[in-house]
Specification:
alpha+beta, Sulfite Oxidase, Chain A, domain 2, 5-stranded mixed sheet, 5-stranded antiparallel sheet, 4 helices, 10 strands, 19% helix, globular
Length: 180
Amino acid sequence: MKKSIFLIFIAVLTLTVSTLAQNSIPAQAKPEPPKTATPAITEITIDVEGGLTLKMKAADLGKLTRVEVKATGHDEVESVYSGYELRTILAPAGAKFGKDLKGAAVGQFLIVEAADGYRAVYSLTDLDSDFADKVVILADMRDGKPLDAKNGPWQVIATNEKKHARWVRQVTALKVKIAK
C-alpha cells in the first residue's frame, strides 16, 4: 500500500513539474518596463485669457531668445540655469507687458502647472522688468546640461526668492487669468 501511494505521489509530482515547465515564461522574455508616475512631457500649453491658446514644443521655444541666470537650487548648489523668460513665452499669446501692463491689466496673474498637479501663481508684474528686478525663466538646462527627469524637461526658476515654492518642476502649462 505504501509503495502504491509513493508511486502515485511520484506520478503527480512529475505531471505537475512537466505542466509548470510547459507554461513557464521563456528565459529570453523581457519583463515590462516599470510604469512612470508622470507621462513624458513633450509640449507646454500657453493659455492667455482674452488672448490665444498655444501648444509649444522645445523647437518652438528654441526660436525665442535664450537667457541664463545664476541661482541656488533645491540642493543648495549655485548653478547657471538656461531657458526663456516667461514674459517672452506669454507675450505671443496676448499677455500684456511693458507699457501695456497698466490699469486692469495689472490684475493679471499666471498659474504655472506641473505634471503632478502642483501649481504656483505669479502676478504678471513679477515677470515685468518695469516692475521687478527678479528674472523668472522657463529653464531647460542647468550648467549646460538638459534638466534631469525629476525636474524637466522644463522648470520655472525665479531669481531673488527666499524659498523655492514657485520653482515648478515638470511644467506642463502656463495660464494667464484676469482677476475679477
